[in-house]
Specification:
The chain is mostly beta strands. The chain is about 0% helix and about 50% strand. The strands form two sheets. A six-stranded mixed β-sheet has the order 2-10-9-4-5-6, with no helix packed on it. β5 and β6 form a beta hairpin. It starts with a strand and ends with a strand.
């Protein structure tokens, strides 16, 4: 199993970024993929997940209306579109297989993480 995030970086408040999570080594359609984030000094939290069975699911009210998750099965890639970014969105973002299915601590397949920094 391999998950590779890309698309992070530095953006001003109000700006947008699109993160990508390219998956390989497993049947992409058969598993949920989740986006998580971890800010300095805080626990890793689940943000959004997507699966073929349940569609997309939000876990953080703070991102509703600003973040969306989507997938491209032809490319085995899940995207996180982040609009109207705020400084409090600054974190390392991770994607994980089975995200939203099991507790964060129980997940074993993670990407390497990618930094998103939102300046005020």
């Amino acid at each position: 199993v391999q998950l590779v995030e890309s698309g992070g970086g530095l953006v001003e408040a109000g700006g947008s970024l699109r993160l990508s999570c390219a998956a390989s080594g497993f049947s992409f359609d058969a598993y949920a993929i989740g986006w998580f984030r971890q800010a300095p000094g805080k626990d890793r939290e689940v943000v959004l997940c997507i699966s073929s069975r349940e569609g997309s699911k939000y876990y953080q009210d703070s991102v509703k209306g600003r973040f969306t998750i989507s997938s491209d099965t032809a490319k085995n890639t899940v995207y996180l579109q982040m609009n109207s970014l705020k400084p409090e969105d600054t974190a390392v973002y991770y994607c994980a297989k089975d995200g939203g299915v099991y507790g964060t601590a129980d997940l074993t397949d993670w990407g390497q993480g990618i930094q998103v920094t939102v300046s005020s």
